[in-house]
Design a protein that fits this description.
The protein has five helices and no strands. Helix 2 packs across helix 3 and helix 4 runs antiparallel to helix 5. It has two domains: about 90 residues, no CATH class; about 40 residues. The chain has about 130 residues and is mainly α. It is elongated and about 60 Å long.
Length: about 130
């Protein structure tokens, strides 16, 4: 038997589930993978909170911590509660643009008109 509490075992299980959910985001954006269970606790909008936390840690030239992620999640929650509209982070905008590029490639391969997707991409990139 392992010598961990039921609560900690449940945290590890939940962290594993969250890690699976985030795997695509992390790999698509080339972000560092979460290193431990604390970084995978559910902060609400965990994907965007993780992206925001990684951006902060890169600027400060250090590794991301669970505290960074929680701070980013808290900041997002406060902004939501104040009713202010947030502008997406540069990383989030690039992630959305990447998804539109995937759609654009598919449309071109299928011979569909790409005009709507080009407009959508320009809007995302601010052009």
């Amino acid at each position: 038997m392992h010598k961990i509490s039921r609560q900690y075992a449940n945290k590890l299980i939940r962290a594993g589930e969250i890690r699976i959910e985030m795997e695509t985001i992390v790999s698509k954006l080339g972000l560092p993978e979460p290193a431990n269970e604390a970084q995978l606790r559910d902060p609400g909008d965990r994907k965007q909170a993780y992206i925001d936390a990684v951006e902060v840690s890169k600027v400060e030239e250090r590794t991301v911590t669970a505290r960074d992620i929680q701070t980013a999640a808290d900041k997002r929650r406060q902004t939501d509660q104040a009713g202010q509209k947030r502008s997406p982070s540069p990383t989030a905008r690039l992630l959305r643009a990447g998804a539109v590029l995937d759609e654009l490639e598919e449309a071109l391969a299928q011979g569909r008109d790409p005009a709507g997707l080009v407009k959508k991409l320009r809007k995302l990139l601010g052009g």
